[in-house]
Amino acid sequence: MTGARKLQGDKVSEAEAIQRAKQGDAEAFEALYHLHKRRVYSLCLRMTANTASAEEFTQEAFLQLFRKIGTFRGESAFSTWLHRMAVNVVLMQLRKKGLPVVPLEETLETDEETHKKEPGADDVRLAGSIDRIQLEHAIANLPPGYRAVFLLHDVEGYEHNEIAKIVGCSIGNSKSQLHKARMRLRDLLKTSRAEKATKP
Amino acid sequence: MYRRSRVGGLIIALVLVASVIAAAENRKEFRFRVHRHASIEVINQFGPISVKPSVGHDVVVTAILHSDKAEIDSSHSGSRVSVSTHLLAGADPETGRVDYEVFVPADANVSLRSATGPIHAEKLHGDVILEGNTANMDVRDLSDGHVHIKTLDGPVTLTNINDGHVEITSVGGEVDLISVSGPLVHVNSNSGRIVYVGDFGGGGEYSLMTHTGDIEATAPAYASMDVLASSSQGKVVNDFPLQPVHTSLVEKAGSAFAGTMGKAASSVKLLSFSGRIHLKKR
Amino acid sequence: MTCEEFERVLPELEGGHNLEQEEHLRTCSACADLLSDLNAIEQNARLLGDQEPSPRVWNNIETALRRDGLIRQPQLQLVSATLHAPRWRFAWLVPIAAALVYGVGLLIMHWQVSTQVAHQGRITNPVVESSTLQSPSVSISEDPMIKLVADEAPGMRASYESNLRAVEAYIHDAELAARNNPNDEISQQHLTNAYEQRAMVYEMAMHRVLP
Fold first, then answer.
1. Which residues share a beta bridge with B205?
2. What is the torsional sign of CA B114, B115, B117, B121?
3. Rounded to two decimals, what is the model's pTM?
4. CB contacts < 8 Å between A and C, how many?
């Protein structure tokens, strides 16, 4: 069993691993990586919908964090710090590519963004029948701005005030984008179900 | 009586031979239960490794040992599985040979190493990493994952590989790419010849480079690419009517050309020091 | 309350509903279904599983940390760990070992060159032109990596020697081209590729000879 795995197996505290990492202990770095890699990678993968980019951003997030580990004093949870780093890395890359992260105007609505469905339309309820693979696909098909807020709130559990600080928008905007993301997902999931039902 | 004893003798002889063969070949099977995106590693010195997709979440490894000069070491931790051949003193390529047949979940990442091979992988969606000295490597029907191959002199054939990164480094092994496309296709060869037959599709970056090996690329007339080809000391032949582009490359008839076809969606670089380069139209 | 009014306040409904909204939900099945669907999406989102990155990610991180000097283990511990740990655990050691081995080989080669020159009474310019370099075949057979392969896996020595010779020839040509055309991107790419090939040959040799 490798040293890093032993660290995990003995349930050495994260705090101890951080202290040892500050002293340059390779196994401590690896233990911290293995503790948090899945959550960070999953966040990056869902935000980018691309394996290669997700790996690159995961790597960058951990490296940025490890380079600053000497300054970590434990004011907040290590995982929160790491997570925030991962989100910032992804958002920075999205901005570099010119992709809109979150529009500033919460009230700006276009025809393609609003879905004025008549009440009593043909929709069947989704509740109780959401396939997780379909949900993952639907998330990947969200516009980047909606996807970012949805992932941070519904998947990762951030509050709107935290999301607003992270992505640089207002709390109202964060709520509005989240609602639009959920509405869009609802449409995508129903379309996907309808397509499946019509296939022979 | 004589006939019966003769037949009986034959049967005994056959049984003896069969048991000798069975004793010489020792078959071992391992089964591991893994989760999604498992990592599977198989390290072998001498002998073939074949990897195919399984049904369900099990990794099944069947190893045939050809003598008692080799042992199988295995480890399983979570979704990481490692199987390796451990050679005992006195083992040589014949007695140290182990044949592996491996079934893995299609989304698993696999890493295979064999000096002599051959190595075969097919119908997987995870990352595939192969390493061999003289091993013949055959990879087919992969999508979405990265493919990384390192070989010294073994020939490499990739068929129907899509949507992932393909990176191949070869010293003397010939590299054949048939219907290979994706965001990145990079072949770095020394004297090994590179043959590409495909459409350079997907808006990817294609880089086929050699020191002395020839490069032969065949693409359809509708290929959409931005091409750069150059050989310092070799001959360069182009069958495509390329649109000229602004480039710092000094176009020299017979040794360099650059230009675009269609919407120039993909970037294609065919570069060699002294190999012959031919961009053919099919 | 109309359906439009209800949909307008939906984004704010995280804390619960007021009486008016509750009443609307009781009487309007479409809005009740909509709210139910949105809640289901939120609940299922929380249950989405995590995925595993490929081993390559940690390898790259570890390499970068070592390069940055953030990992500071004593060399002796590292060596004993190498001898007792599974091979793949220390895959990162291979390129560093390869570079060290090559550096030692280079030192030996230069020592041999300067010794020969001293005997012949010539002045050796430290920045030598490619044409005055010793022929690769002599230095390669003296390469410490080749000697290691010869000791541990003698059947593979000839193969590694010929591969290393081919790679050194590529490096030689690429360095010359890069020196003559310092701004030429193609020359730089050839040089990068040539070094990559050399690193691969060393790495694969180490895989064969390390326990």
1. B184, B267
2. positive
3. 0.54
4. 125
